[in-house]
Amino acid sequence: MAESERGSFVRALLSDRRRVAISIGAVLAFAAVPFVTERWLAQVFFRVLIFVILGVSWDLIGGYAGQISLGHAAFFGFGAYVSAWLTTPTRAGFSESVQSPVIVALIGGALAAGLLALAIGPAIFRLTGHYFAIGTLALAAIIERVLSNERGISGGSSGYFVNSSYDHELLFLLTLAITVATVLVSYYVVTSSWGLAMRAIHDDEAAASSLGINPLKYKLIAFGISSAMAGMAGGLYAQYTLYLNPADVLGIEWMVEALVVVVLGGMGTVTGPVLGAGLFVGLDQLLSEVASGYSTAIEGLLIILFMIYMPKGLYGVISDRVGEPSGGDPPSGSVPTPDETASD
Amino acid sequence: MVSPELAFESLLNGLLIGGIYAVAALGLSLVFGIMDVVNLAHGHMLMAGAYVGILLFAATGITPLVGMLLAAGVLFAFGVFLQRVLLERVVDEGIEQPIIVLFGLALVLQSVARIVLGSEPQRASIGIPGSSIPVGPAVLSFSRVVTFGVSVTLIVGVWAFLRYTTTGLAIRATAQNTDAAQYMGIDTGRIYIITLGLGTALAGAAGALLSILFPFTPYAGWSYLLKAFAVVVLGGVGSVIGTLVGGLVLGVSENVGVLFVGGGYRDLISFSIFLAVLLVRPQGLFGTSGGEE
Question: Is the pLDDT at A327 greater than 50, yes or no?
Fold first, then answer.
């Protein structure tokens, strides 16, 4: 079972050579960025990578499993703080003995966010549809208030300065590697039987349940992986910017931006958020030049317009235009019949 | 140790503020119960209503209670516009599209408010100096008593509208069964427009009332959305009387709870109550699911 799954994953991955070639080219180009550009430009590309991770992560739970989470910012912020505490423990009053290398701190942040999701998952998944969306919003607000109020561990409004032993070039390359890994993991998950189950739950939870799929199990898998990825993104952000502020990393802005990335690119596809992240950061950069201050308003407007006129996002438009063959992105719409999944 | 006098005063103040929470939640509850749409921009519409009241007061000195009527009117028009231009197109497409569209709308409202009005907290003052009402050992502010009275009047008004008018009957029929209502000749498209208009008008009214008591910033929207939703789950979706009870319960829990955990955690109390109730009893403490009182 696991073997054939992996086989189909590799086959699906390699089925479109043009896509693989473009991806490798893009990764190599990104790898050169911190060495050939100025610091501020590298920072722009760093944001693209963070948004790819966040977008792909949100899409797993929102686009594939169909659970509209509005609490994603909390996992990003939690991961950011845990990684900050691990590299810089004394500032939050923790013992110096927990001080860890950057890589350990990043994994710690991701694990903490993933475990938090798994711990609250069984409760929060008692909620469906609208209630889930609003419940996750409340959850994020609670985490934000607690961390903002506990100034001792969050630095309060004056913020938290992070010591990192990596220079920004190294961290950029690490971020790139993690971004690629995130996309691959996500691709693996959605092409596996897990992904099929998630899409079945998305389309019709009751029907999926009657086919013997345990909705809670697959929602938890999606939520756990998704939140760990968001936590990892938060950790990378903390180590790269070296400064955290509750209002910044726990605020709803990260949630907004993750959603913009996914909606622009196309929900329920892996490539969509990657395209969306590039488009979004480009747009954001342009907007801050010509219409600074209005960028959030324009982002909100884009969400509305895309949802109404182009709900499949950029990826949907491109694949309609090019007539993408079936070997491309795993579709989010149609769910194969159980026979098809069994024979794979 | 909290003195009994202080606890008593907090209890009464909680009841008074709870009346406004109920108005804020009623609009959300009606739209949810009748249209099956969670208006994620409800808190931001409340914030918009607050600013209408504040600006009107600042510009003309007109009492915020009259400003409230204007805020309700402006927000009613906005709700009608919203339903006709945006929501009508996505409301039948499952829950993802409407919820994300309304999320986008909330962002637009928040950032427009920030651009136009700045981030500094602002409030309207009802401007009756030194007027307070002693109730036993407690002293209540006159403006809180007035806003509570207005809130309860609004809620009774909406209840009577749904109960005794033909349009109210059509709204209740649509809430119970949209298809059946259509077969009976009810123009449900029009009912949706009226419902969203009414829902956002109530948000506007609640915002204007709150702006008398508390300062507002453009970022207040999310917090009030969650509070309103907390009241909805306490009271049961679509229940007018339940909403009033839910509002009072939330107001009291917040105001008394703050005595024990400190002011920084005020919002946290309502958010936690909200999550707890939602998880234990999704249909609400007092609610049956759907339907009107």
Answer: no
Cα A32 to Cα B129: distance, rounded to the nearest angstrom: 67
- How confident is the model at residue A336, as a pLDDT? 43
Decide if A68 and B279 are in contact by the 8 Å CB cutoff.
no
Query: For chain B, which ranges sit under pLDDT 50?
Result: 289-293
CA nearest neighbour of B65 among B143, B141, B157, B155: B143
Helix (H) or strand (E) holding A34: helix A17-36
Token pair of A322 as six digits:
């090019």
**pLDDT mean over A285-293:** 77
Please tell me which of the candidates A133, A137, A300 has its beta carbon nearest to residue B107. Answer: A300
The closest CB to that of B107, out of A134, A146, A299, belongs to A299
Residue with tokens 């993750």: A258
At A310 the three-state DSSP class reads coil
* Cβ(B203)–Cβ(B45) below 8 Å: yes
* Helix spans in A242-294 (H): 246-249, 253-265, 271-290
Alpha carbon distance A13, B42 (integer Å) = 44
Place of tokens 């119960």: B33
Dist CA B163 CA B5 (whole Å): 40
C-alpha closest to that of B27 among B209, B177, B286: B209
Q: What is the pLDDT of residues A20-60, one digit of tens each?
A: 888 888 888 888 888 888 888 898 899 999 999 999 999 99
How many CB atoms within 10 Å of residue A153? Answer: 16
Of A52, A33, A30, nearest to A281 by C-alpha is A52
CB B269 within 8 A of CB B258: yes
Looking at residues A71-85, what average pLDDT do you find?
Answer: 93
ipTM of the complex: 0.85
Burial class of residue A128 in the structure, from the number of CB atoms within 10 Å of its CB (0-12 exposed, 13-18 middle, 19+ buried): middle
Rounded to an integer, the average pLDDT of A322-329 is 53
What confidence score (pLDDT) does residue A134 get? Answer: 87
Q: How far apart are CA B207 and CA B72, in angstroms?
A: 9
Residue in the structure block whose two tokens are 């600006």: B55
**Of the candidates B250, B223, B224, the residue with the CA atom closest to the CA atom of residue B235:** B250
How close B89 gets to chain A, by Cα (Å)? Answer: 7
pLDDT at residue A318 in the model? 83
If pLDDT is split at 50, 70 and 90, which confidence band does A340 have?
Answer: very low
pTM for this prediction:
0.86
The Cα A246–Cα B169 span in angstroms is: 48
Taking Cα atoms as reference points, which of B267, B102, B91, B50 lies closest to residue A134? Answer: B102
> Any alpha helices (H) in A37-150, and if so which ranges?
39-59, 72-87, 102-124, 129-149
By Cβ distance, the residue of B111, B268, B271 closest to A300 is B111
| B223: contact with A, CB 8 A cutoff | yes
Cβ density class A2-36: b for 16+ within 10 Å, e for less: eeeeeeebeebbeebeebeeebeeeeeebeebbee
Rounded CA gap, A187 and A263, in Å? 18
Q: Is A297 on the interface with B (CB under 8 A)?
A: yes
**Would you state the pLDDT for residue B293?**
38
